[in-house]
Amino acid sequence: MSDNFIEAPAEPAENHYQLIAAIILGIAATLTAVSSYMAAVVDGDAQAGRADSARSLSDANFFYSQANQTAAADQQLFVSYATAAQAEDAELADYLQTLMRPEMAEALQWWSSTDDAATPFDEVEGNPYTLSDLEAAQELEQQSLTQVQDAEDADAKGDKYDLSTVLLALTLFFAGIATLFASPKVTVGLLAVGGVSLLLGSAVLVQGLTL
Question: Which residue of 54, 98, 188, 191 has the fewest C-beta atoms within 10 A of its own C-beta?
């Protein structure tokens, strides 16, 4: 009795190539979407960081200006006080003290009781003279520098995501056209190039995510 089974034909090699191409294209498309989204996010962060830095620096300049005006007023009062004290005009000297800021009055008392400073404004250890506007300005200036650095870091991430998007776009191109050629060697070559660009794009994307 003869066998009636008919041997099924082997699956064409082209089907394997199409399956590989489809897998590569699917992964590349997903990673491209992720990379493009992250690039848009960090670009927005970079722009917001620069805007925040500009505002902080503007505020710092305002407080620096205020501090300079306050320091000039304090120095003028001190000169008037020293002149009155030199002329032994106690009444005027006492009156001028009432016009001084608490920090200035405290520094004046410190200066009167120490030989370490020529004026209440000398940067000597223990001098209680302070300018709150100057301290605020310095904090805002440092904040501005931090915000600029954050913006630059966001830009660096954005560059990684942009490069990843380009490499993944190459993957989409090579894998997309790989199965259009009749020559298996050409198909395999294009799929290989697409696979390499997929790996490179993925690696760059991971670098951006870990920065």
Answer: 98
